[in-house]
Amino acid sequence: MRAHLRRHRRGIGGGAAGMIAAGLIGVGGGHLAGHHHLPPNAPVASSQPSAPSSGEGGGALIGHCGVERWPVKTGTDADAGQVSLSPVQTTIAQMVSLQAPANPPNSNRVVPTELTNFTIHATLTEFKLETDNDYHLVVSDGTRTMIVEIPNPGCVGSGSPFRPQISQARAKFDSHYVAGASFQSVSVAVTVTGIGFFDRLHHQTGVAPNGIELHPVLNIDFP
């Protein structure tokens, strides 16, 4: 095991990283949970977030946390309490077949996908530390790819119901790899569990055609 960790804990930078229920297939973008306006107390990313508590994965923050759809990415949105944490087994093929919404809102979720906790068995092929402190992981089924992301706990508001699991997932990744500012290539089996999320397309490495991700990742195993 130690030899395995030595072999894989590589990189630069000090940054610390079944099937879909029938009703989810073919959903035309779904609809939005809750109201479509920004709640008056909606959390926003801070350039000086609170430090992670002892024992959490993630390491020191570098630069700033994210902004775009950040409440949904980290579980500080008004709809986070509606997310079912019972994992739904799925595949990358099924996830990339979902129809994306035309313009997902910043602080509300797209139903039902963004209220669902999915588990995927795939191959991790690339990873890096993003400028918003997320770990950007690319997973593949051999034909298709999609992105799964693990936020830094220091960028997750204390009110997020997902923060403990995000912290544990980040620590698990840190026990295997060190994510740096450049992509590192690997080929290792992983089982990833996380909340469905539609990202806006902006030429991301490994992005699915519909922008679907697991974000945040709540658990990652290296079987």
Strand order of the largest sheet: 4-5-6-8-7
Helix-strand topology string: HEHEHEEEEHEE
What average pLDDT do the residues reach? 82
Overall number of domains: 1
Can you count the helices? 4
**N/C terminus separation:** 13 Å
CATH topology: OB fold (Dihydrolipoamide Acetyltransferase, E2P)
Q: Which regions have little confidence, pLDDT < 50, spanning 5+ residues? A: 1-32, 34-55
Based on secondary structure, the structural category is alpha+beta
Polypeptide structure, described:
The strands form 2 sheets. Strands 4-5-6-8-7 form a 5-stranded mixed barrel. A two-stranded antiparallel ribbon has the order 1-3. The chain has one domain: Nucleic acid-binding proteins (OB fold (Dihydrolipoamide Acetyltransferase, E2P)), CATH 2.40.50. The longest helix is centred in the last third of the chain and has 12 residues, at 163-174. A hairpin with a 5-residue loop joins strand 4 and strand 5 (135-140). The chain contains 4 helices and 8 strands; from the N terminus they run αβαβαββββαββ. The protein is an alpha+beta fold and 223 residues long. The radius of gyration is 16 Å and the shape is globular. Helix content is 13%, strand content 28%. Residues 1-32 and 34-55 have low confidence and may be disordered. The chain starts with a helix and ends with a strand.
